Structure to design on (443 residues):
């Protein structure tokens, strides 16, 4: 099918199989390898991307369902501050989960700001519950997420 | 083999695709189940009908008989809707424990029903609420109680040309307590070892009506008939909570050993969890939308 969508602000038109995973479109067809494949079955969140502002596992999203949508991957704009918080906290070990963690942290931090909610640790844990870190470096990741949500632009 | 895919843009297009001769089509909604099945090759459909962009299957509306939920309602949408929160806090509680945010954004009511996994978390909630599923085909529409619709292990009463259009959650009685509990390995992102959902209506101190269902403790979502029989017409004393839960765990469920748990653990935990749950004075709070 002809797939039209916006990726990181750029309008694209591709010819793809409708059930091709968004993850494969991004990584293999468009060579944006920042998005990682972990489990490939929606458990680990390593492949998290934003579709129309909502965080999804790109391994579960068929290309047909992003037709006309706005997709943002870790290579897109707007992740700088969250990335800096992760750097300062040393919130990465092997790094496979890091792009997904940053994508989810950004969505959560923006939601806290939008709703005027004071970001807390329990809330951060719930928000990041679908992102697994196989190095179990959650302490630093949660500190980085809280830093990102507390910082004012 | 790559399946032939129809990306439906309207209900008519989806129903036309399902009505075509040849191999029966698999319906694709949020993809949380089918996309994994396709990748691993566990399911090799010849045809797939993608209904994600069918607007007629979305949205929540109030009707005379209750609240009608579109089949494509995602867990995230149900969690945000204040009408669902006040009408069916049990369903909201179940939605909150499905996967985590990424899955909640995609997993749908219709997908839970259509896949009919015994571990689907929304199905016991729907059975306890006495919900009815509306099926539509080019031949017309019909409504079936969710309890009957889920007729076996990953089996439903859906005919091959039918699409799950919506679910009706009937208007609630005045004095009702809704109860929900899921047991998994961790709070989020775990497939259930067991789930239990109960809706209790009261007249004075006595239970006047009860519907209860459980997941992951049998080949399909199970209605808990013994529990319902034991409770109705009686005041909900601590002793009754324990004895009814124990009788229910003996008679109503048929758990097995599998990758997630054992039959022994499930039966034991089920009785304890259910007894504790029944004794909770307030049930699931009618929570504000998150």
């Amino acid at each position: 099918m002809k797939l039209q969508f916006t990726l990181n602000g750029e309008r694209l038109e591709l010819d793809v199989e409708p059930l091709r995973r968004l993850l494969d479109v991004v990584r293999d067809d468009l060579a944006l390898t920042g998005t990682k494949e972990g489990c490939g079955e929606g458990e680990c969140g390593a492949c998290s991307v934003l579709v129309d502002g909502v965080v999804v596992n790109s391994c579960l999203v068929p290309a047909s369902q992003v037709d006309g949508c706005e997709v943002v991957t870790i290579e897109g704009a707007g992740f700088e501050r969250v990335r800096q918080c992760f750097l300062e906290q040393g919130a990465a070990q092997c790094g496979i989960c890091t792009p997904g963690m940053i994508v989810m942290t950004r969505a959560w931090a923006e939601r806290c700001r939008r709703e005027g909610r004071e970001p807390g640790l329990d809330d951060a844990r719930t928000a990041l519950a679908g992102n697994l870190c196989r190095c179990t470096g959650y302490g630093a990741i949660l500190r980085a997420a809280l830093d990102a949500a507390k910082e004012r632009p | 083999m790559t399946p032939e895919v129809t990306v439906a843009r309207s209900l008519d297009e989806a129903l036309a695709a399902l009505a075509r001769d040849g191999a029966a089509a698999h319906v694709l909604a949020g993809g949380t189940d089918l996309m994994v099945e396709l990748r691993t090759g566990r399911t090799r459909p010849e045809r797939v009908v993608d209904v994600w962009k069918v607007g007629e299957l979305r949205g929540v509306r109030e009707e005379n008989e209750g609240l009608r939920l579109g089949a494509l309602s995602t867990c995230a949408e149900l969690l945000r809707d204040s009408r669902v929160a006040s009408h069916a806090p049990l369903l909201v509680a179940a939605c909150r424990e499905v996967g985590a945010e990424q899955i909640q954004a995609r997993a749908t009511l219709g997908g839970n029903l259509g896949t009919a996994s015994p571990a689907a978390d929304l199905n016991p909630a729907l059975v306890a609420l006495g919900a009815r599923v509306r099926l539509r085909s080019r031949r017309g529409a019909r409504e079936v109680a969710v309890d009957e619709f889920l007729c076996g292990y990953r089996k439903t009463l859906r005919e091959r040309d039918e699409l799950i259009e919506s679910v009706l959650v009937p208007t609630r009685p005045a004095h009702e307590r809704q109860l929900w509990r899921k047991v998994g390995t961790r709070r989020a992102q775990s497939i259930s070892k067991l789930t239990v959902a109960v809706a209790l209506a009261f007249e004075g101190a006595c239970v006047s009506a009860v519907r209860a269902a459980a997941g992951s403790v049998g080949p399909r979502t199970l209605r808990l008939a013994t529990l319902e029989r034991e409770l109705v017409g009686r005041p909900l004393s601590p002793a009754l909570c324990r004895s009814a839960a124990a009788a229910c765990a003996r008679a109503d469920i048929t758990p097995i050993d599998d990758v997630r748990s054992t039959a022994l653990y499930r039966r034991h935990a089920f009785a304890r969890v259910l007894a504790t749950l029944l004794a909770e004075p307030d049930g699931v709070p009618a929570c504000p939308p998150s």
